[in-house]
Amino acid sequence: MVNGYGLDESLQTIMGWGKYEASAYRVLVRYGPLEASDVVVRAEIPNGRVYDVLNQLYSQDAVIKQGVQPTKWDAQNPRKLIEPNQRKFEDMAVEAIEALEPAYDLNLESQSHPAWITTGIGDTSTKARELFERTESRLWILERTFWLSPQDREIIQSKAENGADVRILGWSGRPEVQELAEQMPAAKIREAEEVDTSFYLSDDGAVLINLNQGDTAMIFHDSSTAKIFTEHFKSLYNSASEVHPDA
Length: 247
Prior knowledge:
Blueprint: H1 4-15, H2 19-31, E1 34-35, H3 36-43, H4 50-59, E2 63-66, E3 72-75, H5 78-82, H6 90-110, E4 115-119, H7 121-134, E5 138-143, H8 150-161, E6 165-171, H9 176-183, E7 188-192, E8 198-202, E9 206-211, E10 216-221, H10 223-238, E11 241-242
Parallel strand pairs: 5-6, 6-7
Antiparallel strand pairs: 1-3, 2-3, 4-10, 5-8, 7-11, 8-9, 9-10
Helix pairs in contact: 1-2, 1-6, 2-3, 2-4, 2-6
């Protein structure tokens, strides 16, 4: 999966946009309806340019306006926007759609449920640790990057030792999977060849989705949302391979 800046470059090539248009669209897909002032901060666009950028996207039907005073801007569906250019830029278009569409769908789902966003690795790690510490009966972790700190691992191991159902599913391309099995023998650890995101499920209704290798997180406290992620985790976990500590 491409990162934010790589995705911006793909959008510039596919859509013929400048860097500010690409950045603004990516941010609106990820965070949903935003005021222009929020786009300035999240997309790193000069304050004096933001309305020109948003109006340019609006003229191309890439974004829509919602309300007045304040006006909010929202992204159009990335698949419908990008697919007409797919033949010309097949590989980049597919990659961009796959990177953007899950965030877009997740944003639609989250608009009807309580949700919070944290930015910065420090805030994300703090919220994740709070989630781990509050766990009583279940902690399921789907992890691609394994940025978990030693303190996080100690907490998770303690929860498993005290009877919580701790399951960790990692990407087999990361050597840290074996390390976790050795550091947390009480947890049930498996690995899969395809892990394209990271999220954590704690008890009933609590979900933290880790984006951008810990730089951004979305936090939900909603049983219906948690059920969606629970079923996704189960489908991956049941077909994954068990990882045991080295003897």
